[in-house]
Specification:
Blueprint: E1 11-16, H1 22-33, E2 36-39, H2 40-53, H3 61-68, E3 73-78, E4 81-86, E5 89-90, H4 98-108, H5 111-125, E6 130-134, H6 137-141, E7 147-152, H7 155-168, H8 175-191, E8 204-207, H9 213-226
Parallel strand pairs: 1-6, 1-7, 2-6, 7-8
Antiparallel strand pairs: 3-4, 4-5
Helix pairs in contact: 1-9, 2-4, 2-5, 4-8, 7-8
Length: 231
């Protein structure tokens, strides 16, 4: 008897608003089904951090293009998972600051930045077996993804979660400052000319405002099984 062919490994795209837990879901999903997790948001944050660190004028796209052309954005393994690296340096501890958060959406609007990172993301995920989260994964990076999730939550829930993240890291941040930042990022991400945040027509919408992490994870695993993937 011939062995049954193993099902092809899926490309899973998780898009959604800032602070709705895309990375949390993507990390736990990738760990559960033994897939590679790629935090595309961290890639944009890494470039933003590099530009700020080197005092590059982010309003000058030509200057940005010259600055990022030689950059190598990769991921390195650590005890806490994959960390994003710039030219081999682990920069994970620098990219979650409020300073980076305030500038990442304008940087992500730039065509030169998106072209560089989208090409890299496609290269990483071309053989499947990946979970990617971001804002344009299911619409631009992998429009043919095997499973597309559009994750959302109400603003108050998202703000509370983000404040808790800062507190866990020993950083204090005001509720109002976080709410203002998330609201602004929603607006910029949804209205930018290049690759705006939008729900793919074939995406499954999950509002996790009142879901536990376990509940949302099991929901996505169930969707994969419905599509015939062995997970």
């Amino acid at each position: 008897m011939k062995n049954k062919a193993k099902p092809q490994k899926a490309v899973i795209a998780i898009d959604g608003h800032s602070g709705c837990g895309k990375s949390t879901l993507a990390k736990s999903l990738a760990k559960k089904i033994n897939y590679l997790y790629i935090d595309t948001g961290a890639m944009y944050r890494a470039i933003t951090w590099y530009l700020l660190e080197n005092k590059v004028d982010i309003s000058d796209e030509e200057q940005v293009a010259q600055a990022i052309e030689p950059l190598a954005i990769t991921f390195v393994k650590s005890e806490t998972g994959n960390h994003v690296a710039v030219n081999g340096e682990d920069v994970e501890k620098y990219i979650r600051s409020m300073e980076v958060s305030k500038s990442v959406s304008p940087v992500a609007e730039l065509k030169v930045v998106r072209d560089k990172l989208v090409a890299l993301q496609r290269q990483i995920g071309q053989d499947g077996g990946v979970v990617m989260d971001g804002r344009d994964i299911g619409t631009v990076v992998f429009p043919d993804a095997d499973l597309k999730i559009f994750l959302t939550a109400d603003v108050e829930t998202r703000v509370a979660r983000r404040v808790a993240e800062y507190l866990e890291k020993g950083q204090t941040i005001s509720y109002d400052a976080v709410k203002e930042n998330l609201t602004l990022r929603d607006h910029i991400d949804s209205t930018r000319e290049i690759s705006p945040l939008r729900q793919a027509e074939d995406a499954v919408v999950i509002d996790n405002s009142h879901l536990t992490k376990v509940e949302q994870l099991e929901q996505v695993v169930g969707l994969l099984r419905e599509r015939g993937f062995a997970v």
